[in-house]
Automatic annotation (TrEMBL):
GO terms for cellular component: cytosol. Signal peptide: none annotated. Residues 55-326 form the Luciferase-like domain. One of its GO terms (molecular function) is oxidoreductase activity, acting on paired donors, with incorporation or reduction of molecular oxygen. This is LLM class flavin-dependent oxidoreductase. Gene3D superfamilies: Luciferase-like domain. Coiled coil: none annotated. InterPro entries: Bact_Lucif_Oxidored, Luciferase-like_dom, Luciferase-like_sf. It comes from Pseudonocardia bannensis. The keyword Oxidoreductase applies. The keyword DNA-binding does not apply. Keywords: Monooxygenase, Oxidoreductase.
Length: 363
């Protein structure tokens, strides 16, 4: 299938889909695909056919999400385990680009310390061209210690590589004939990344949780990516103030928050589904070597953060959006141990009974 026939978008730039940080008057909704492996992830029991089925059904879910009115799909990046099968988010997003025409396509996130920034800029530029300008660039330092440790990186290494990598990545995407003299990356001859993305500047969504990191995102004028929790209540204000002081005017449309949802016709049915998800998430995180303290942090994301009937989920999400001030919502819907039919039920119930009531919510 050719790129031109794979999408309904025309070559005219006016047909391109608005960026995620545009249209601040509405709430935008994204499906977050973590692609959790649903079989026995012991290496000797790995099932390639099952992995293919998970990938194919996730792509079909994304196609259905577009039909239901979602604004985009974000996908994760993880390494060194069989729990997820998404080490390369951009390969997955390229497949979605050929099956969709309106969804924004982003990474939550590219783990920048694990990448060559120049090579990543080329990959992002190519993905943006394939998708007719639909890429949302997401970057972060990575949160899982198992990944950092096995790459042989310390926390200081990660910080240094991320900061240098983000500088080179944004320059490579937005400038021509650049040189660079960094600790980890050097470009001695003036060089240019091709292909360049359609929409420049391609303002990245930068994952940040600590106050100083959030303020840095604001000062640099980038978009903010975080998680929906009571601890995040003051993050937007901190981000906006830092951005304003640096001469950048931003709003809740520049803040993407993430949670997971389980929706069923009744609260009790949703809670029963959640119990299976929580047990599976905990057992898997511990078995893969994650420290218990770290596993507790991620339980709400992988075990169901917002759970209940459509009305219950509507009330909780409305409260969460008003608490954080975010106007971009990233939803993990397909969780390990939950049959795909029940995950699709969650997506349909959200789109039909929750999304319309949140679209014009005032935050």
């Amino acid at each position: 299938m050719s790129v031109s026939s794979a999408t309904e978008a025309t070559e005219n730039s006016s047909a391109r889909v608005p960026r995620l940080d545009e249209e601040p008057e509405i709430i935008k909704f994204l499906r977050c695909d973590a692609l959790q492996y649903e079989g026995d992830w012991a290496p000797e029991k790995y099932d390639a056919d099952l992995a293919r089925e998970i990938l194919e059904s996730s792509i079909e879910d994304a196609v259905e999400a577009e039909r239901l009115g979602f604004d985009g799909v974000m996908t994760t990046e993880h390494h060194f385990d069989g729990w997820t099968i998404i080490p390369s988010p951009n390969v997955y997003l390229a497949a979605l680009a050929c099956r969709t025409s309106r969804l924004r396509l982003g990474q939550s996130v590219n783990i920048l310390p694990f990448h060559n920034p120049w090579r990543l800029a080329e990959e992002v530029g190519m993905l943006d061209i394939i998708s007719n300008g639909r890429v949302e660039l997401g970057v972060g330092k990575g949160n899982f210690s198992i990944e950092r440790d096995r790459y042989g990186l310390t926390l200081d290494d990660v910080d240094d590589r991320f900061n240098e990598g983000l500088e080179l990545l944004t320059r490579a995407l937005g400038e021509h004939s650049i040189t660079f003299d960094g600790k980890y990356n050097r470009i001695q001859e003036p060089s240019t990344v091709y292909p360049k993305p359609f929409g420049l500047p391609l303002r990245p969504w930068v994952a940040a949780l600590k106050p100083e990191s959030i303020e840095k995102v604001g000062r640099e004028g980038n978009n903010l990516y975080g998680f929906m929790s009571p601890a995040a209540a003051g993050d937007l204000q901190r981000y906006l103030e830092a951005a304003h002081e640096a001469g950048h005017e931003r709003s809740g449309a520049n803040y993407l928050t993430t949670t997971s949802i389980i929706i069923a016709p009744t609260d009790r049915e949703a809670e029963e589904i959640q119990e299976c998800a929580k047990v599976s998430a905990w057992e898997t995180m511990i078995a893969r070597g994650m420290p218990e303290a770290e596993a507790h942090v991620y339980m709400p994301l992988f075990g169901g953060g917002v759970v209940g009937s459509p009305q219950t989920v509507l009330d909780q999400l409305a409260g969460g959006l008003q608490m954080t001030g975010a106007r971009r919502l990233n939803l993990v819907i397909r969780l390990r141990s939950i049959p795909k039919e029940e995950s699709r039920q969650s997506m349909h119930l959200f789109a039909e009974e929750v999304m319309p009531h949140l679209r014009h919510l005032s935050t």
